[in-house]
Amino acid sequence: MYDATSAIVFEALFPDVRPPLRATDGSAGYDVRAHLIGRRVRCCRGTEGDVYERESSKRDATLAIAPGERALIPLGFKARLPAGHEAQVRLRSSIAFKKGLIMPNSPGTIDADYPDEWLVMMRNDASVPAVIEHNERIAQVILARFAVLEWESGVVSVTTRSGGVGSTGSA
Q1: Do 108 and 121 touch, CB atoms closer than 8 A?
Q2: Beta strands, E only, 13-165
Q3: Is 40 left (phi over 0), alpha (psi -120 to 50) or beta?
């Protein structure tokens, strides 16, 4: 276990990495940036899930994600969240709109006890390669509290919300 605090413990893995920041006082999310200088990025293509590594461009520290390819973009830091919290990772809307990238597991969850470098999973849904630049704001992290409850066996009775997807009625 670890000590529960009210602060996030941030560990930069490279000298140029800054903690996630909110862009404005009204922002719910903390922007996170791609860290690509001299990095190998885990990638995957197709349904078989063959994982391979690609190196970011040495010339300009960019990564081109091919159409249909998935990539785990490194953020250059580790962090420890207080107990009872999670970080929900979502793409920035500009990344999705302008580059055709999506997060297949959106929102991604980072647990309070996750010990490794934070990553953002992206998939290129466009028909052309999408380029991610070093230090580009690619996603945002929303912090949320969660409850831990026990599960118990029992009978679940019918309510007015039965029938599956869209079961609460129309219009």
Answers
A1: yes
A2: 30-33, 40-45, 50-55, 62-65, 69-74, 77-80, 85-91, 101-102, 108-111, 119-124, 130-133, 137-145
A3: beta
Three-state DSSP class for 154?
Answer: coil
Token readout for 89 is 């990772």
| Cβ atoms 92, 139 nearer than 8 A | yes
Cis-peptide, bond into residue 107, ω within 30° of zero:
yes
Terminal CA-CA length for the chain: 49
Name the DSSP letter for residue 125: -
**DSSP string for 27-61:** -SSEEEE---TT-EEEEEETTTTEEEEEEPPTTT-
Cα separation, 17 vs 15, in Å, equals 6
pLDDT at 169: 59
Classify residue 20 by burial, with Cβ atoms within 10 Å: 0-12, 13-18, 19+: buried
Does residue 165 carry a pLDDT above 70?
Answer: no
Instruction: Render pLDDT for 49-98 as a digit per residue (tens, 0 to 9).
Output: 789 898 888 788 999 999 999 999 999 999 999 999 999 999 999 999 99
